[in-house]
Amino acid sequence: MTSLRNKMNELLPERRQKIEERARKLIEEEEAARKTHEFFHSVREEWLQERSRGADVAGMVAHPAYQRIIEMGQDAVPLILQELQKRPDHWFPALYAITGANPVPVNAQGNLSMMTDAWLNWGRAIGYRWQQTWVDVEFPGLDYTVTSESDKDYNSISCMHKSHSKRSNIRAWKPACLK
């Protein structure tokens, strides 16, 4: 019994050291992820504010802020996918430049919604993960209230328009990509 207790006492400091090393590594990884997230969102805001408007996708992509996002490499992919989920935009050239993938079928080219869905499905299939986010839903000129939240796996919420009693189900929730 004494030898077993001695052996356990010898192993405890070694085990504690391994746990402390792992905790330090997790803290460092979390800090690096936070910095990457902050950098991405800062550069994204710069791009959104300064980019050319309209159909000039080449001008949007050539913007220095957009190029800095591409330079982030694989670290930017889940952040771009999350951004696409929240607000579809012209992130496809960046995703292609970083990953070399092109999951958009020919019949979807030029259709922002279909292109977004293709990239999000690709991201899920590859195993990328990103946070759950609500998509902003607006009905210009109509007041509405959210009357109930449906099952989060169903991808919709139920709304009641204030101007009339018609209930509408709209796609507003996209779940996190889970592998």
Strand content: 5-15%
Order of SSEs: HHHHHHEEEEE
Taken together, the total number of domains comes to 2
SS-derived structural category: mainly alpha
> What can be said about the biggest beta sheet?
3 strands, antiparallel
Tally of contiguous helical segments: 6
* Overall shape: elongated
Terminus-to-terminus distance: 46 Å
Query: Which parts are unreliable, with pLDDT below 50 for 5 consecutive residues or more?
Result: 133-179
Give the C-alpha Rg: 23 Å
Please state how the strands of the largest beta sheet are arranged side by side. 2-3-4
Portion of residues within helices:
40-55%
Could you tell me the mean pLDDT?
75
- Tally the beta strands: 5
Description:
- The protein is mostly helical and 179 residues long.
- It has two domains: 130 residues, no CATH class; 48 residues, no CATH class.
- Helix content is 54%, strand content 11%.
- It is built from six helices and five strands.
- The protein has a three-stranded antiparallel sheet with strand order 2-3-4, with no helix packed on it. A two-stranded antiparallel ribbon has the order 1-5.
- The chain is elongated, with a radius of gyration of 23 Å.
Topology record:
Layout: H1 2-50, H2 57-62, H3 64-71, H4 77-86, H5 92-99, H6 112-126, E1 133-134, E2 144-149, E3 157-161, E4 167-170, E5 173-174
Antiparallel strand pairs: 1-5, 2-3, 3-4
Helix pairs in contact: 1-3, 3-5, 4-6
